[in-house]
């Protein structure tokens, strides 16, 4: 059931993404020739007015084919004839829809919550070296750590894991005022644990707040912002060589992880909530990744739109859209090749396991 749920989730996200382009195009007066979910040969198609609606065989991607999107045409309702700001809205509408769906899924997950962990120091364990006027006190809210904003309490551990060492920069809020702790030493020490042994910890704990309606809205929004930031941090690690192809995963790996999370859940309700959280996380990731300035992605098209609009405004000469089409076509080939490589890698890892 979890695998079927994952497949359904991807289908919904693809449909919603293309629906965003479709609705924005229709509202902008741009002619849509085809609205298709998935790729490959059509298993269902129906012509309604000027638009062909289709469901295709290969469950990857989808598209909203607009008149004159990658070629010059005299049709006054073509994509290229629309005002640049309308084209911009059409291009970002797909990612915007995915982001909204991600927010809604997270809101559903947090709806039953009674309390949330907050990055506010609740109490210190005996012997904690971080306690003091020059360090941390009860009630301090941690706003930033090593230049990264703390959106949710779990960010504290995440950011620390990305910045190894015992010296960190903190920004805290104390009695309504911001205080900077520069080069603040945070060293783990041995503290007793409930099982009778000891473990390495910092020696302080965060508190909880009631999950009021306002706090649920705030926590949902902060989680979404945190997810966007995680995409940026992941890309930084990829560029710096901290992670490689072996650390990347595609739809096959995501489905496998969702299945593992569902199987590890104690109840069916917990499994559903975990799957929905995964869905919200993926939806927001998809929104951000799709806006990266890479050819064939919406972000690459946005960059080309802004560049060509600026050049045409200066030179007063129209740039043939076929050249942009060649660029995006080449980008699509490379992206599909990368997706295939990652898919085979994921399958090999799963089979080997």
Describe the structure.
By secondary structure, this protein is of the alpha+beta class. The protein has 2 domains: about 1-110 and about 280-350, no CATH class; about 115-210, Pdz3 Domain. The protein is about 50% helix and about 25% strand. It has helices at about 1-25, 85-110, 155-160, 215-240, 250-265, 270-290, 300-315, 320-350, and strands at about 30-50, 50-65, 115-125, 140-145, 150, 165-175, 175-185, 190, 200, 205-210. The strands form 4 sheets. Strands 5-4-6-7 form a 4-stranded antiparallel sheet, with helices on one face. It has a two-stranded antiparallel ribbon with strand order 1-2. A two-stranded antiparallel ribbon has the order 3-10. A hairpin with a 2-residue loop joins β4 (about 140-145) and β5 (about 150). α1 (about 1-25) crosses α5, α2 crosses α4 (about 215-240) and α2 (about 85-110) packs antiparallel against α7. The chain is elongated. The relative contact order is 0.13. The model has no long low-confidence stretch (mean pLDDT about 90).
Name the helix and strand elements from N-terminus to C-terminus, one letter apiece: HEEHEEEHEEEEEHHHHH
Q: Mind describing the biggest β-sheet?
A: 4 strands, antiparallel
**Percentage of helical residues?**
40-55%
From the helix content, strand content and strand pairing, which structural class follows?
alpha+beta
User: Using DSSP, what is the number of strands?
Assistant: 10
Work out the strand percent. 15-25%
Tally of separate domains: 2
Low-confidence stretches: none
Strand order of the largest sheet: 5-4-6-7
Choose one word for the global shape.
elongated
Mean pLDDT: 88
Task: Please count the helical segments.
Answer: 8
Question: Termini, distance in Å?
Answer: 21 Å
Q: Supply Rg.
A: 24 Å
